[in-house]
Amino acid sequence: MAALSWTTAARIASRELRSSRGKFFFVILSVAIGVAALTGVRGFSSAFRQTLLVRARSILAGDLSARMFQQPDASQIAKLDALKTGGVRMTPITEMAGMATAANSLDPLLVALKAIDTSAYPFYGVVDLKPSMPLTQAVGGDNVAVGEDLLIRLKLHTGDRIQLGDAKLRISSIVLSEPDRLSGSFAAGPRILLTQDQLESTHLLAPGSRAGQRYLFKLPVKNDRDVVRLKAQLETILPESQVTDYRETNPAITMALDRATGVLSLVSLVALVLGAVGVAMAMRTHLLQRMDSIAIMKSLGARSSHILRIYLLQTLLLGLLGGVVGVVLGVGVQLVLPLLLAKLLGVTPELHIAASAIFAGLATGLLTTLLFTMPPLLDIRNVRPILILRRTVDDAGDGSAVSGFLAKIRRSGAQIVAGILILVGITLIATTLSDSKAVGRVFTGGLAAVLLVLLITSTLVLAGLRVLLRGTRSSLTPVVRHGLANLYRPGNPSAALLAAVGLGVMQIASVFFLSHALIKELKLSTQPTLPNVFLIDISPSEIDGVRALLKTQPSVRGEAEMLPVIASRILSVNGTPAADLKLQNFPKRMLQSISITWTDNFPPGTKVVRGAFWQPGEPLAKLAIGQRMAQRLGVDVGSHILFAAPGDPDHPVDATVAAIIKSDGQHAFSRAEFLLPRTPLASLPTVWYGGVHANPDQVGELQRALYAKYPTVTVINVAQAMETLRGVLLQVSLVVQFLAGFSIFAGLVILASAIAGTRYRRIREVVVLKTLGATRSRIAAIFSIEFATLGLIAGFVGLIFANLTTRIVLRQLDLDYHFLTLINVCALLGVALLTVATGWLASFRVLGQKPLEVLREE
């Protein structure tokens, strides 16, 4: 036979496709759903993440912030100005304490001043004012905006004037919330928002004044790489400053987004690989059906390479067609999801349909289709015409499907190479889509391990069934005996079905378990009892009274969080004096005014990164230090830090680092960087700080009640900012649930199509059984037993690996793993029901036909 051209091979391939439209529907559906998940779900989650990141930026009011406690010199200002040539915007914020008085109150009040440039501040978010007005109208000229607590303490109203240094300014409005309220300094005293020019007119800012300078930066393009690059530049230009980017502003949002991104990436991978498994199952069935045609072509002189060329083109055509349909569906998903979720989430992501995403979807769909159809395509090379022409049933199984598979591997090293290529390809795809080598390795490792175990399990189960049937042949009903024997009959793809169903169960269950763990964590971060009002400067004599007062307030929910604070300074680190330390972007002067806290119980909202927390009653000076502070000081578990003891300079506290901790930023203890047990600090003077959750609309009442009884206690209201944060986290949880549900639904459809693809293999058996007098109900019962057994075995193994994979991934995401007994049992029964229902429905059309009609088709 002359060499078969690619053109002729393409014509043959397309003709077969046209003649088997129904059969290839499952192939196209599998590829399309996988690609739709990649381009649609991933595209929407990416757009939604970018939208949330903008809201995360609003908590900082910029992309980056540089905080320093001295004015930059001329060379530093020149370098900062040079950044503007690259499109970087910058605005200064000056924060300091001052004294304010009013005509009807002769007693001066300590206030916190925040001077801004209203033409630039804030870069992200808005300042919420009462009455509502533009910030440029509320602040500037002789107008200032103040916190409501200032009006309470000075008994003023909007429109009244206050004396601030040499300036007499008019109160234009009340500041309800500021974008950077959580990231700004928690100064003692009511808030006053004014311009830089107004601050100069007060003459409060003089050489030597204790004022904090903060610069906000906004990049022209929202790109994490540019953020990292600018951060490195700022750390070089301002070595004594604390440089923070928007990802560090609030750990709760950062962790939630990072974890959600990992889970959503896995969602795309699950649908894609399940689609590839569905393709492999359908192509395997198709090639086995075409054995007669292949044998005839080989008898006429066709080479294996010619036939491979035909079916390779057919595979690529199917992958391309499914990819195109998937891209269209994906774009539809990306268009429809924002409309469905806009009201629920209160946010509408911008639609970005990038050509790169479409190309990635098509390329990945084609690659996975080709990879997973390699094993059945390579089987064509081992086809011998004489054996196929003589066959009455195919020799795909000789009583043990797995034994036949292993025999093929022994005969051909190409199958081993194909398996390796599949694993390498999936690893590359997983790594690319998840942007994480660790996720790619875990994903591929789980995939390879579950396939291997499923193949071994199928061998043992089929062998065990043979032994069972031999010993219980007389005690089992014919239907049960026949259903179990079907698992190892010649030509039954039991091993392939076990692998496909088990793999599908593993991946679908993994997505569910991961999303469940993430949602549970997010719910903890969005509890309506998290502190949103903070109390400062509570004396030891007042702490019990403040606690009692808070319990009587109707606006307060839950228990108040109170922490003792001891003013101290660092004398040395690991024997090196504080003056000689080499710090990483941390002003040395900050070492002279640090706060240490004592606690015998593990603080809420805190996790141990390294080391171990102490038990209650610990007598030694052990230290738990915040992760970021540990990095700045260059300490780790086992390091020593010497703290000055206020009131007792001859007996400093020598603390040994026992734990590196990380806080979620939402509790009173979140601002404590240095924690020690109570015993070593028991004799030192203490001031108390606290946090409590109050109804955002009733914070004013709480402030009045506290001021009336404890006028020296400062109340810091961040309720509106916390509500914004809580809303962002709730949006993340809803999107994760929705997209995980979409992926699970898509996976179930693909899994059902893989099972349904076996209906063409059952035609001959149904014909024989019906010819021998079997009824449709009897045949359906036989199939049900067979599929239920398959589902239980594959489901059991798949769930074991789903739990193992989930545990590994959750450890990578720094989340706790819990075995969900009820859900696992229900999932196992659900898989059995799904396989039975799908197998029965797939065979329903065949069951309704007469034997003669089917034999004529054969």
From TrEMBL:
Keywords: Cell membrane, Membrane, Transmembrane, Transmembrane helix. Residues 266-383, 738-851 form the ABC3 transporter permease C-terminal domain. It is found in: Cell membrane. One of its GO terms (cellular component) is plasma membrane. Residues 25-235 form the MacB-like periplasmic core domain. The chain crosses the membrane at residues 24-44, 263-287, 308-341, 353-374, 416-434, 446-469, 495-519, 734-758, 779-802, 822-842. It is a multi-pass membrane protein. It comes from the Bacteria. This is Putative ABC-type transport system involved in lysophospholipase L1 biosynthesis, permease component. The lineage of its organism: Bacteria, Pseudomonadati, Acidobacteriota, Terriglobia, Terriglobales.
